[in-house]
UniProtKB/TrEMBL annotation:
CDD domains: CuRO_1_CopA, CuRO_3_CopA. The keyword Protein transport does not apply. Pfam families: Cu-oxidase (PF00394), Cu-oxidase_2 (PF07731), Cu-oxidase_3 (PF07732). PANTHER family: FI03373P-RELATED (PTHR11709:SF394), MULTI-COPPER OXIDASE (PTHR11709). The keyword Oxidoreductase applies. PROSITE patterns: MULTICOPPER_OXIDASE2 (PS00080). Residues 388-399 have a biased composition (Gly residues). Residues 70-177, 185-330, 476-585 form the Plastocyanin-like domain. Gene3D superfamilies: Cupredoxins - blue copper proteins (2.60.40.420). Residues 1-18 form the signal peptide. This is Multicopper oxidase domain-containing protein.
Length: 776
């Protein structure tokens, strides 16, 4: 198995662009050459890369046809978007020095776009609509032309609304000019799939719906906390006005590799070392990568070669890419498994022939233990902590300014590949010594230590990446902020629609320091640039285009400002970006892109779109309706109650959230009531007969209790306390309300689906009732 390490070292000598040259510029291509793309076969074949010492670039052309189509990944058919009739889109293969000519044909009735993720190219070719490139209009065609000055594993996807989740993503492979080896390689595009429409997913996140947590068993209810011995931790969490902890926002129906839940590379030969080009093309999922055939050698990150090192388990953040070397087992087909980091599912690819060799299962998440660990951080700033879960260097102290852990969430440690159950072929062959080499490989150390779990500190550039210290430095500090209850994500408490551009100047060095104050992790991506991810390797810190920052963590990146115009910077969890976590990095003193001049306001509108949701409780004693129309800072709320005697009450309020945390809101409204069967003779302007305007304040108290203080046009003051969605068990919830008008309401709901709950309530005026609650 020394061949594996020899090949890894050989690969590390390849001319991956910009290993120490972040300022590399563009070149122009030459002769025409047409490349066609075909849909993937059910059992994919590896591409054999042949040795060569030099290469003269060509003009490589692709036509990409974007259209809507019906797909079925789960047994349920829904409309999605494909390219050239497939999801994921075709792999675009080039050589370093080529000129890419890609015609994007929009065959839909809505606009689309394509961004070339990780590719260094002219600003107008970057593909962000209304910033760099015009959107591709319905029925239209846009031709992208750019020289390829780099090599490595990259990908492409739509940057229009939520189309990436719907299927508009594919892989890019750029081979270097010089290849000193012959090796088979496979492209693995990981993705997540939901049967819900992507717009519906974002709307549901905005309304803080519970069903995704119910599906994952992640509600973290008081009943479960009490049974598991975490009641005080749950109480402390909600006292701090924190919602339930989770690793991801969404429950996904399937996880896919190259569009399949399970795939096979049967042309891989026993004992062969193959290269896996792994791309996390998901909309919002992190994955743990495991290989049943032994340790994986990491040889490149985000397209850039790194000093090879072995790992048993690697976590890949959304939008990252890693190149790995693995050895095909002597007998059987080894599973390459990508498990979603919330352990709700996985996708598998089997490499080799024969009986499957399974990768070890990962244990389920202990959400209460995770909650306890987060509670323990209360009162500590991210600066004091240096990052959640930070480890220490061997022989050294804390690496401040860098989240060291990158990877293992609580209670997810995987057993080493050699500890998994053996298959029948292994057991039969072991007596003949055929698995001896496999055992040696699993236990051998090399390239900096024995194989284990991955963290960013293991990434070491092949050459020093330090920037020219004589240049002027610009320091930029950004805080990652958000409100999970309202699903608004931001930098420095400002969404893209509210924020100014981040100014930099060409020729200077830029150091950006990020402090994550949210309870979620965020994979951040800077368009048009590679940066030093400052880690324990110091001068050999790796070059990347996307990095993960853990909850309460801190990360520093550095890059040479060698471009012009405006570039997008954002969280690559699609729903976080669409909820506001994005900024524009703008080069001062350079000519502005025409789209940034004229259409930038369209891009800024995206995160501030209004979303509507409603709950209708149809009970035996009456009907109760609550609706909300909300954007980032405003909400229009309506409450209506009616019974079968013709009594009714309505309240309508327009809110404006005032503080950064969005705990405080001012409102104006109108209260109209006519509970005629409850009125005493001559009763006027009371809680049962009221037509008043009002003004007031809402404030979120500890334990997630919403308090209301209002003054109406008759001079009457009312105080109200309300707690909704109080989790009693995984799918059993309570709503409580009381006010100084001596009104109160108690509701219990048992969720049976995303849209329907069994429910019962007691209202001080309308009394007991039972029935169904419909959720929209």
């Amino acid at each position: 198995m020394r061949v594996l390490f020899l090949l890894a070292a050989l690969l590390a000598t390849l001319p991956a662009w910009a290993q120490s040259m972040p300022g590399m510029r563009m070149a122009k291509g030459t002769e025409p050459h047409m490349t066609q793309s075909t849909p993937p076969a059910a059992e994919l074949q590896g591409k054999v890369v042949m040795p060569r010492t030099s290469y003269v670039g060509k003009r490589v052309e692709y036509d990409l046809y974007v259209d809507e189509r019906l797909v079925n990944f789960t047994g349920r058919t829904r409309r999605a978007i494909g390219i050239n009739g497939q999801i994921p889109a075709p792999t675009l293969t080039f050589n370093e020095g080529d000129t890419a000519v890609i015609r994007v044909h929009n065959q839909m009735h809505m606009e689309t776009s394509i961004h070339w993720h990780g590719i260094l190219l002219p600003n107008e070719q970057d593909g962000v609509p209304y910033l760099n490139t015009a959107p591709v209009e319905p029925g239209g065609t846009h031709t992208f032309t750019f020289p390829l000055i780099q090599s490595g594993t990259y990908w492409y996807h739509s940057h229009t609304m939520l189309q990436e989740q719907d299927g508009v993503y594919g892989s890019i492979v750029i081979h270097p000019k010089r290849i000193p080896y012959e090796m088979k390689e496979y492209v693995l595009v990981l993705s997540d799939w939901t049967d819900h429409k992507s717009k519906e997913v974002l709307r549901y996140l905005k309304r803080t719906g519970e069903w995704f947590a119910v599906q994952k068993g992640a509600t973290q209810s008081y009943g479960e906390a009490l049974a598991a011995g975490y009641f005080k931790d749950k109480l402390k969490q909600e006292w701090g006005r924190m919602p339930a902890m989770d690793l991801t926002d969404i429950y996904y129906n399937k996880f896919l590799t190259n569009g399949q839940e399970k795939g096979y590379f049967k042309d891989a030969k026993p004992g062969e070392v193959v290269r896996l080009r792994v791309i996390n093309g998901s909309a919002s999922s992190y994955f743990f990568l495991q290989y049943a055939g032994g340790p994986m050698q990491v040889i490149a990150a985000d397209g850039i070669n790194v000093k090879p090192f072995p790992v048993n388990k690697l976590e890949i953040a959304t939008a990252e890419t890693y190149d790995l070397l693995v050895t095909v087992p002597a007998m059987g087909a080894a599973e390459f498994r990508a498990t979603a980091n919330d352990i709700t599912g996985y996708t598998s690819t089997y490499i080799g022939q024969g009986e499957p060799m399974k990768a070890p299962d990962l244990p389920r998440i202990n959400y209460f233990q995770m909650m306890r660990e987060m509670n323990s951080m209360e009162g500590m700033s991210a600066m004091d902590m240096g990052g959640a879960g930070m480890t220490k260097q061997q022989g050294g102290g804390e690496m401040k300014g860098m989240d060291m852990q990158h990877g293992s969430a609580p209670a997810t440690t995987a057993p080493s590949p050699q500890n998994r159950p053996e298959n029948a072929q292994e057991k039969a062959g072991k007596s003949m010594g055929s698995m001896q080499d496999m055992g040696e490989m699993a236990g051998m150390s090399g390239m900096g230590g024995a194989a284990g779990d991955f963290n960013y500190n293991q990434l070491r550039a092949l050459n020093p990446t330090t920037l020219d210290s004589t240049k002027q430095w610009r320091e930029i500090n950004l805080t990652l902020t958000g409100n999970m209850l309202r699903y608004v994500w931001s930098f420095d408490n400002k969404t893209l629609s509210e924020a100014d551009k981040i100014p930099i100047r060409k020729g200077e060095n830029v150091r950006m320091t990020f402090t994550n104050t949210t309870m979620m992790r965020h994979p951040l991506h800077l368009h048009g640039h590679f940066f030093r991810l400052v880690n324990a390797q110091g001068a050999y810190s790796p070059m990347k285009h996307t990095f993960d920052i853990q909850s309460m963590g801190k990360v520093t990146i550095e890059f040479e400002a060698n471009e012009e115009q405006d570039w997008f910077f954002h969280c690559h969890i699609l729903y976080h970006m669409m909820a506001g976590m994005a900024r524009i990095v703008s080069y001062e003193g350079t000519p502005q892109n025409e789209y940034a001049r004229t259409d930038y306001k369209e891009l800024k509108k995206e995160d501030n779109r209004p979303y509507l949701w409603a709950d209708l409780m149809a009970h035996s004693q009456g009907a109760f309706l609550e609706t909300t129309l909300s954007n980032n800072r405003h909400a229009l709320e309506f409450e209506g109650r009616v019974n079968y005697q013709g009594n009714f009450e309505t309240e309508t309020h327009l809110l404006r959230y005032l503080d950064n945390r969005q705990f405080l809101a001012a409102f104006v409204g109108f209260d109209y009531r006519n509970n005629r069967t409850l009125l005493a003779e001559g009763e006027r302007n009371t809680k049962n007969n009221r037509r008043v305007f009002d003004v007031g304040l809402y404030y979120l108290l500890p334990l997630l209790v919403r308090s209301e203080l209002r003054l109406d046009s008759n001079g009457k003051v009312r105080l109200q306390l309300e707690r909704t969605d109080l989790p009693l068990s995984n799918n059993f919830f309570a709503d409580l309300l009381v006010n100084t008008d001596r009104e109160y309401n108690v509701t219990f709901r048992y969720m049976v689906s995303k849209y329907v709950s069994l429910s019962t309530n007691y209202d001080s005026d309308y009394k007991w009732g039972t029935g169904l609650t419909f959720h929209y």
